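Quick one before lunch.
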Amino acid sequence: MKLMIPASGGLDSTLLLYEALTTTAHDVVAVHYDEGWLAVRDPRREALAAEAFDAIAAWLRREAREFRTLYGPTVEIDSSSAPFPNAERPVRPGFAETERTGWHHEIFATHGHYAGETGADEAWVALNTWNRRRDTAWLGIERVAFRDRAGPGRALRYPWLAFRNGVWTGRSRLGNLRRIPAELHALTTRCYRDGGPGDCGACLSCLARVFHDRWCRSLDDVGLARIEERIEELAYFGRHFDKADAATYRHRQIDDVLRDEEGWRAWFNAEGIGSEV
Ligand SMILES: [Zn+2]
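Model of the zinc ion complex:
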């Protein structure tokens, strides 16, 4: 089977690529998109991401096996004719906080474009449970945008996630931090802010890494699962999304949760799991 994996140079997609190369026999093509024009990126960060992708590909060819790489721009789409127009919309009906759908639409159209261009049977996208708190509303955007560009007979998959009983389950970002080989992790763009090796101390990538090293290193899988569940509860992910208050809900709640040193110390003491590092 031919597999297309969008690879940004960050933790999640790098690990997915590593897993596909080491645990499957699929014919893999990794595609890095130039996202420099996007508002959420910038040209300098994109240059660092492209460098990271090169280093990652070289490491994987040496340590895992051969595979194809491809570079290209994201596709431009006319969102005005799309089923979900390029506009702000509530993260959930009735919620005050909004998100832009256009960027999301562009990315999944690009996944579809390169799935078609590479002749892939499937595109695997490295979403973890922290990317999926919004029930299934966004699946519609993703599937339509992908299918319109990929053409028939190509599948869009999220290998780490499952949707059961109205809840997304699967691997979180912490689970990925636990699994990626340290050498490979060191090559990834580790910060959303500058793409460099530093710690901005503010972006989700840096916060997750600090949190993982502070609280999760010595835990077994059961302990980690309890932490993941607690994060979902405090940040209104998964089955806890329904408890979020429509007026005060913030997408960045997870940042506050990961930063809450005092709260976690108290929780660890009360739960009696693991030990402080
Ligand atoms: Zn950062």
